[in-house]
Structure to design on (48 residues):
């Protein structure tokens, strides 16, 4: 089954060591991931 809009670089699967999860999420999710994290921090009152 395909997830619309999802992609990954197959070379990530063979990299040693594997890339950091956060780096992949930033590359795949871009601004959406940044906005998600920002909102999460705001909810915990870590950001204004």
């Amino acid at each position: 089954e395909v997830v619309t809009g999802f992609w990954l670089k197959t070379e990530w699967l063979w990299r040693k060591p594997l890339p950091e999860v956060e780096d992949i999420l930033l590359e795949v999710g871009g601004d959406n991931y940044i906005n998600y994290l920002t909102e999460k921090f705001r909810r915990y009152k870590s950001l204004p």
